[in-house]
Amino acid sequence: MRNSVVAVVVLLVAVLAPAAVLPGSAMAAEPPVASTPPTIAGDPVFREPLVAEPGTWLPAEGLTFGYQWLRGGAEIQGATTRRYRPRLDDLGTHLRVRVTATDTTGQTGESTSEPTTRVERAELVVEKRPSVSGTKRYTHLLTADPGKWSPRRRAFSYRWLRDGTRIRGADERRYRLAPADVGHRVRVRITTTKEGYRTGRATSRPTRDIMHRVAAKRTATYRIETRGDITASMAVFRAEVAETFADPRGWRSAGVVFKRVAEGGDFSVVLAEASTVPSFSPVCSAQWSCRVGRYVVINQMRWLQATPSWNDANKPLRGYRHMVVNHETGHWLGHGHLGCGGDGQLAPVMMQQSKGLDGCRHNPWPLSGERWYS
Question: How far is C-alpha 233 from the geometric centre of its chain's CA atoms?
Fold first, then answer.
């Protein structure tokens, strides 16, 4: 009886004892599991560093991490560290990082981050603003300094601006100031490029107002008069005479400033009916303009129609009006007639261009040698 009881007890112990306590029957540990996925710190911009954060894992301790960066789901060769700088091939794509956690027993688990936004181009940074050097006067040469850029750049394109508006054809590093620049401000816009970067643009500060070729040396006052039956617009005549006198290419470039007055004045600019021109002097003709004493006489027929040689050369009427005002005013300033300097050259404004060119080309403005105030 006693032996039977002992046998039953031994059998019950064998049946009810937990398997974990038996030698060689320990349960295997679970592999690492991510409780929150990896993340990527930083902006996805070309050459800017991104840093992988591994997320949180179970177990929380005793893990080591490996990294593999992905481009659109495909592994990026060699991108197996925690930090990654986007490359040219990454532009416009989404990046992820896959983290592998390994525990002390060698078991592994994987988790992948959400994708970044599309990788963007980086910015070219202007460390020193572009600038302009040179004398700020008509006919002088300005030179652009492109400034200092990061990353360093050596190749630039140039665009010159007048009061913020592009100057046609002015796209070199140097720019020679033109008549239209006088009284306005000039600046230069620099453009540069580099792979992986947005196009870089920077603009210099504007110059002060561009000045005439020379400073004012003399002021001459004039008044407007008429003779005979005038059919031309006097408003246009007054405005265009004033424009000719103020133009940097004209006698203003010799240092003469012209100021219109209502009465008196140093000289008179007269718009005269053709038949009245000889009344100023026997040397004057009804066919042409003339200057007599204080009178700069503009023949109305020529003002309205120019001359046959001017028209045959297909020159604009406005150019003729510049020429005739400059020529007759030049006489008042003390200049005599000049001849052609050589075939194909511009005619001096003091040449009688309406009567013959001797191989020269029509020209409405004083040449450099005619500016006796220069």
Answer: 41
